[in-house]
Amino acid sequence: MDVGQRFFAGYKKRLLDNIEVMKEKLFVSFSGGRTSGFMAYYLKKTYKGEICFVFANTGKEVEATLEFIDQCDTRWNLNLNWIEYDPQKEHGKKNWFKIVDFASASRDGQPFEKFIKKERIPNPKYPNCSGRLKTLPMHNFVKHHIGWKEYKTAIGIRFDEKKRINWKSAKERNLVYPLTTEFPVDEKFIRHWWDQQEFDLNLKDYQGNCDFCWKKSDRKHVTLIREGIDLSWWQRMEQLSEYNFFRLDRSTEDLIDMSKDESIKSVGDKHENRPNDGLYDPLDIGQSCLCNF
Fold this sequence. Notes:
CATH superfamily of the largest domain: HUPs
Number of domains: 2
Shape: globular
Strand content: 5-15%
Number of helices: 11
Number of strands: 6
CATH class of the largest domain: Alpha Beta
Order of helices and strands: HHEHEHEEHHEHEHHHH
Radius of gyration: 20 Å
Oligomer: single chain
CATH architecture of the largest domain: 3-Layer(aba) Sandwich
Strand order of the largest sheet: 4-3-2-1-5-6
Structural class: alpha/beta
């Protein structure tokens, strides 16, 4: 019995019961993270209605994320749709996306830059990048390219993350959370499941899908800078704008300066020589991002 068979064996009756009601059109938002990847596997195996998998590329995803997504698509026959934010200039146009694939997907931040030029740099005061770069074009694609009018949207939030869910809003927006309600799993389960697969997402936890997402904690930013991440795109966007990306209205240059402070430990070293180990540290404050679910 392979991993997939062992995984589903204990839940066979529950899955069969759920499948009876899982026959509506289902759009699956694929972020490129491990939880999202597992959700895609689970739904591909169990869902009996029409299903559509979509990944919206911002151009700032790390290459390991794109490779992981391509592997999931190829190995599990997801028929994944790759799209990018691309608002049409003509008045009245409905399309906010263009269709790409693994080979043609932007690696230089072009979709993200289009959003910034059309609106502004996202930051804690204007946290709209996920909504514009992913949510809007994905739903636009499903409605105007696939042609669906009514459908559910599956989001990869685990049972141990359920506090992030606004259930009232979810009902109004037809959002479903299969890994919270249909098949509750936690981070430990996801880790164990991926450890048994033939491939995995080749990223450290603090890296994330977006190479230098402004929602990361200061400590993660400092660690990435010390590891030599290319920040030229982030610097150029700030130079072209009146706004900065990061908390407390800090710029990329401010974070580079912070990384030179030897008293600030990197992620792997943060517990060394710290008298307040285990206590609240503002350097570790970050925000969750829908790009990772």
